[in-house]
Amino acid sequence: MTGNKIRNLTIDEFYVFTEEQLDGISDFELLILKGHILVEYTLNCYLEAISKDKDSDFFKENLSFSIKVKIAKHFGQLGSVDDNLIKELTILNKLRNDIAHSLSYKKEHLTELFSELSKKSPSGLISDSKNSQQERFIGVISFITGAIFTAYKYYTNPEELKDFI
Q: Is it the case that residue 123 has pLDDT exceeding 90?
């Protein structure tokens, strides 16, 4: 799906899109990689929304994920208003980099990600250790992409948020 299509999704359509992309993946490393891509898509939309250049296209910019996170931290609200997701984004990127450089992930990075997001969602899918690792990780990706995509909509179409707040 291209940037244009993602940008134009409603919040409900985006949730369906995310679910369709993650549903049925049995390989956990693939789930991490695909989840990372979905988070980067939402981060691209968010950065475009806060950019002073209304023609910006972060889907085409040649910026690393970590640089995009730093831009969001310093110029956006993800480091304050929107649940301070910077730490979680950084840990998610560590997981992705683990796979990119060694074809496997470090369990401590996954544990740290679950721990950080459990603080924000103490009674949810992520914090319940009875849920499978895959279910919990899908919960992580859903939480992060949901928060960032909603922040994107706040800047681009606040009217759409009436049903969510």
A: no
